[in-house]
Amino acid sequence: MNLFLQRIVERTVRIGNLSITGPSGTTRHFGDGDGEKVHLVIHTHQAERAIMLHPSLALPEMYMEQQIDFAEGDVLSFLHLIYRNIGISWIDSGWGKLLNTMRLKARPLQQWNTERRSKRNVERHYDLSGELYKLFLDDDMQYSCAYYERPDMTLEEAQLAKKRHIAAKLKIKPGQTVLDIGSGWGGLGLYIARTFETDVLGVTLSTEQHQVSTDRAHAEGLESSVHFELRDYRDLTERFDRIVSVGMFEHVGVNHYKTYFDKCAQLLKPDGVMLLHTIGRVGPPTTTNAFIRKHIFPGGYIPALSEVMPHIERSGLMVTDVEILRLHYAETLKAWRERFMAKREQVKAIYDERFCRMWEFYLAGSEASFRWQDLVNFQIQLTRRNDVLPMTRDYIGKCEKAIALHEMGHSPVEPAATPPEKAAPAAKTGAKASGKPRRRKVTGKD
């Protein structure tokens, strides 16, 4: 085993049970022997040198190229061992501060996400085969953090709870217009239109997702009330009663936060409500992991709350609620990873062994970051006026219960009467969409 690499591992791994076998066949042991045993096998001297110089990039790349393997344990258990040793405060060390400062200097170039570049970035990940995502996502193709109201929830139940939670915070009323920025495979837009009888516009930069979501709208007979467009949010000029964005903000890039919130402020009506659901970090600003930036989400970045708030404040929007979802994404990623591994041979048939190993590291590494590092999810509720929503958060829980009853086929909690100026458009929308008598829908009112 390379002597320099051995010294680095000795200084890093002081607890746990790690064994490393080098290219020569010699095995070294690190840690205090406590916990699950992890045995890493390094097959080549090239892999040793690469890991020594840039571990966060080289470890997954060498795993992808089959130049390293795990004789015992796996990617997740290895990362758990490493994070037990380094904690989440490595950036507070002298070397950590220096390294982070150097990386921050290069960040603007890494996240220069113009409209053309944003589309290319999206194509790299979201225009992969739809068959791949069907193998491990829930039935509604939700590719974002689920909401585990109970620890025993299935992935399908938790994803439905996520949509319900978001809809409740938006306090949607029938007949309103809703914009979904980054609409994915259409599940959330279809859910909102189906549940609340609204007009929904979903925009995406993914050709694959646009086609799937459009087909779904036609299959459900909702094409009159849900429209999906292959369009950049920066090109929109319409105004909306409600705006929702789930799992898209991570692709905006810090250079474009001002543009994003200024545009949302322009698109949101004076009495409108917006809900931003995004991955975030509880630690200070940093940079995107080199492996994720290169192989998974080019141009992507996970912000600290301190990087987001100044742009909201200057845009004319006001924050009315912030919720931090802890560990929900760890559980979501666990479900995805287990499903992915169960269907690994089918994934391999679509792509190859290298792709499977890349996604193993991506899913396990992401789960580890939410479980043992500083990643969480932010749900930020925004308005343009401070009197648009009730003074307490009680309405959120009430609306969730009403929606849940509706989903089970029961009549929801009887809503308050809809103002006359809102009632006419709602009835007109419903008649045009179906030509049938309007069914009673959840309104999200107290």
Features:
17% strand, disordered C terminus, 7-stranded mixed β-sheet, single chain
Class by SSE composition: alpha/beta
Write down the Rg: 24 Å
What is the overall silhouette? elongated
Task: Give, in order, the helices and strands.
Answer: HEEEHHEHHHHHEHEHEEHEHHEHHHEHH
Approximate helicity band: 40-55%
Mean pLDDT metric: 88
Return residue spans where pLDDT drops below 50 for at least 5 consecutive residues.
90-96, 412-446
The largest sheet, given as strand count, sense and whether it forms a barrel, is:
7 strands, mixed
Number of helices: 18
**Biggest sheet: strand arrangement:** 7-6-5-8-9-11-10
Q: Give the CA-CA distance, first to last residue.
A: 66 Å
Proportion of strand residues:
15-25%
Per DSSP E runs of 2 or more residues, the count of β-strands stands at 11
